[in-house]
Every structure is written in structure tokens, then in C-alpha cells.
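Hey L., structure's done. Input below.
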Amino acid sequence: MKTLQGTLSAAGRTFGIVVSRFNSLVTSQLLTGAVDCLLRHGGTEDALTVVYVPGAFELPQAALQLAHAGRVDAIICLGCVIRGATPHFDYIAGEVTRGVGAVALQTGVPMTFGVLTTDSLEQALERAGAKAGNKGWDAAMSAMELLHVCRQLKTT
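Output:
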């Protein structure tokens, strides 16, 4: 039996992080977690490209442009959509999820989804470094692992 699995190392790899400015109280903490994770796993600051976009809806478009530029090995998408009193949440959450997935499949660039979809600001803050850990860190961990798995799949 042949088993492929990723390693948790950012050494020698480049990462793009596309982060939404909307809900920056939360997304700035997600970004801090992602960068900290990559640096603690052998990455370097010069191997990281951070791209800010206005909101979560714009994450897929920027991720697509970053993937086509060919300067990063993997992309981490970070954002936060908080439910309000209108159906806007459902539209944005659904479209950003579909969009990031489509970009990953279209480009073949390993891509992770660190977009919080919560019912309240309190829930978002819990997932950005409080009680529930930091989902930016988790998205960076997943990006490292997925990158290494994808590289193995290309040579298998």
C-alpha cells in the first residue's frame, strides 16, 4: 500500500495570503495567526505575499490573479462574514465558498479556506485567537500539508 501525506513545513516554499479588510478586527487576527504559523514552521517573511481585498466576496478574484501570477506555491484565503438581519450573509458566504473552490480547481494551486462564517462577532473573535484557537493558523497548517501532498501527487 502506498500512502501519501503532507508535512508541516513552510521551509523553501512561498505562500500567498489573501485577506479581507472587512471585519478587520477579526481578519487581522486571522492574518497574524497564519503568518505566525508559517514562520514557526520554517517559512520566512520574504516568502510570504499578503494581498488585502475590500471584503470576502473579493477573495476569489484576488486569489485567481495571485495563482495566475505564478509567484506562490500555495494560497491561504482569510475573511470573516458575520450573519446580520438580512439574507446578505447567505449570498456572500455561499459565493465566496464557491469562488475559492472554483479557483483552486481551475488553477491547481493548493488553496485553503480560512473564511469564518459566524452568527456573531463574539463567535468570530473566539475563532480568531480566543477560545476556539485561531483559524488563520489552522488554514496555514492546512496549506502546508496540502502543498506537500499535491507535490507528491504530481510525481507519483
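The CA atoms of residues 104 and 132 lie 27 Å apart. The longest strand covers residues 74-82.

-- N.
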